[in-house]
Design brief:
single chain; 275 residues; alpha/beta; Spore Coat Polysaccharide Biosynthesis Protein SpsA, Chain A
């Protein structure tokens, strides 16, 4: 049912400078795979086969990664190293990749709106932020969990997790009514609130299932004081008119947009790999 996954990947990755001066942050490796490949694999396991990527200047490495490298493959053909490319070759064979650019950094909402040309306005689609690396060792990946939930509720779905209340100013926070264990009908969303502005600690993380009416809501959303269009504001507007679901996903999330989270994810996967 949901075959397209949108990857906003136009940001500068300034927290990782100077490493990201010439390399996209989405290409930073966790062990031997770049962050964005983990995201694509999660989307594939959820049944998506069309990967729509929003890039920007200096992001050619993403396009090249999801393409055949004839010289490299010729050099390692019939050697032990040839098998190291099996995973990425399977992705290339099974998926279609489309790209467009976000020419100006105007927030996540604007990036999603730029993706309209890639995902269309007819069917729901997934959104995955590659620097939120999510792992569920005991079952389905996060997008698979959310697509199963979409089949029941037929509306936009936001992945959430509980955070310490002292950290809510770092996240978009949802408020809502619990429909069943871990599933909420959203009544309000606040981007990076102060502690005094909400009693909720349900934070939005980088996984969404969005229905096509998100585009009209983004179009009607005014930029904030930083001239950015917040997806949180557009989804909040949707929740006042239609049902929007927040879901406490099963699994572990690493904030690989931060140095601490990146190191934590690397150590976690390294220990898992050697056990």
């Amino acid at each position: 049912m949901i075959k397209k996954c949108l990857f906003p990947a136009a940001g500068y990755g300034t927290r990782f400078l100077p490493a990201t001066k010439a390399m996209p942050k989405e290409m930073l490796p966790i062990l031997t795979k770049p962050l964005i490949q983990y995201g694509v694999e999660e989307a594939m396991s959820a049944g998506c086969s069309i990967m729509a990527i929003i890039t920007g200047r200096g992001k050619r490495a993403i396009t090249d990664h999801f393409d055949i490298s004839y010289e490299l493959e010729h050099q390692i053909k019939n050697t032990k190293k040839e098998s190291l490319l099996d995973g990425i070759r399977e992705i290339i064979d099974k998926c279609t990749f489309t790209y467009t650019r976000q020419n100006e950094m105007r927030g996540l909402g604007d990036a999603i709106y730029k993706g309209k040309a890639l995902v269309g306005e007819k069917y729901p689609f997934a959104v995955l932020l590659a620097d939120d690396l999510c792992i569920n060792e005991n079952g389905d990946g996060v997008l698979t969990q959310m697509i199963k939930l979409y089949k029941r509720y037929k509306c936009s779905i936001i992945a959430t997790m509980e955070v310490d209340h002292q950290d809510i100013h770092k996240y978009g926070i949802i408020e809502g009514i619990e429909l069943e264990n871990g599933i909420y009908r959203v009544s309000n969303m606040i981007e990076k609130p102060k502690n005094s502005e909400t009693s909720s600690n349900l934070a939005v993380i980088g996984r969404y299932i969005l229905t096509p009416d998100i585009f009209s809501n983004i179009k009607d959303t005014k930029p904030d004081t930083n001239r950015e269009i917040q997806l949180t504001d557009a989804l909040c507007k949707m929740s006042k008119k239609d049902r929007v679901i927040a879901y406490k996903f099963q699994g572990k999330r690493f904030d690989c947009g931060s140095i601490d989270g990146f190191v934590e994810a690397t150590n976690y996967l390294y220990k898992k790999d050697i056990v």
